[in-house]
Amino acid sequence: MTSKRTFLIGTRGSLLATTQSGHVREAITSQGLQAELHLVHTPGDASQAAQTPVAQIGIGVFTETLRNALDSHECDIAVHSFKDLPTAADPRFRTVVPTRVDPREVLISVDNKPLMELAPGAKVGTGAPRRVSQILAVRPDLELVPLRGNITTRMSRVGQDLDAVVLARAGLERVDMLDNAAESIDPQLVMPAPAQGALSVEVRADDEEAFAAVAALDDSLSHAQAIAERAVLSTLEAGCSAPVGAYSTLEMHPAGASGETTATLRVYGGAFALDGSDTLVRDASAEIPFGSTRTLLDATWSETAAQAKRLGTQVGEALLADGAERLMAIHR
């Protein structure tokens, strides 16, 4: 691809956001194209500085301003943590999903103690109801403390007023701070947010040149998993701050006689009582197709995406049938 255009990549100003966007920039410039980061200040940054709980500021607080900047042509590309985006499709944009990093949660703690070995009554910092509910389910003796701020700010409280904090492993991995983690928590113990570890790289739906610049970044395996996990959340009609989690696994199979590659996608979804008193987890699996190129341009992609969404929806419906709405009502 050749283009004389310099693509502006909209990003928040935090270390994590600029690092993620910087990786996207490098992938674009490696194709011989020009791209620069463009900082966009979001209301979520101000609320974070004020330590306002996410549940009070609403869904999409970190993404709406970036999307508005993209829609108004202030930038050409926007980079989001996919887990922060509302689940409803936005026809203004097209998205690609680069290769996902490990979606698990990590614990940063005094003396590197894992979650199950923290002292009774230990203070653990996290502002996410999803994390609070699951931690209390396995360690009801712990004191959960609301926590916001960037990675460095949150980690700095360990050994000060907190005994531990819970963070997304993906963030630490991307800013090269993973050696601070005491453990990566088993997702069957603390289920991650749907699409955690995945990025959503968005362009305007009518900007074919920008889409061509980012299309090669897409990894259809990561994209399909994100679609399936977000379908769980969408089916439950729950926001990104609700006590709902999802994760998925993929088992690739050798190409058959037809040359088609398939994989078994298994999706897990959970809904949790905020006080840790009740937990619902359901899962489902299906064999889905993957083309040889594993990109959005592959002929099999639309069917892969559709099957991934159906599978996530199936898990969400199973949770609803077994009482997840009751847990959600308690949270609301």
TrEMBL record:
InterPro entries (alphabetical): HemC (IPR000860), Porphobilin_deaminase_cofac_BS (IPR022419), Porphobilin_deaminase_N (IPR022417), Porphobilinogen_deaminase_C (IPR022418), Porphobilinogen_deaminase_C_sf (IPR036803)
Chain coiled-coil ranges: none
Entries under Gene3D superfamilies matching the protein: Periplasmic binding protein-like II, Porphobilinogen deaminase, C-terminal domain
Q: So what EC number does this one have?
A: 2.5.1.61
Superkingdom: Bacteria
Mind telling me which PROSITE patterns this protein's record contains?
Answer: PORPHOBILINOGEN_DEAM
Give yes or no: UniProt keyword Ion transport: no
Q: Where is the Porphobilinogen deaminase N-terminal domain?
A: 8-210
Q: Which UniProt keywords apply?
A: Porphyrin biosynthesis, Transferase
Cofactors, names only: dipyrromethane
GO molecular-function terms, A-Z:
hydroxymethylbilane synthase activity
**Residues annotated as transmembrane:** none
Residue ranges annotated for the Porphobilinogen deaminase C-terminal domain, each copy included: 225-320
The UniProt catalytic activity note for this protein reads:
4 porphobilinogen + H2O = hydroxymethylbilane + 4 NH4(+)
Q: Which family does it belong to?
A: Belongs to the HMBS family.
Q: What does this protein do?
A: Tetrapolymerization of the monopyrrole PBG into the hydroxymethylbilane pre-uroporphyrinogen in several discrete steps.
- The protein in question is named Hydroxymethylbilane synthase
This protein's encoding gene: hemC
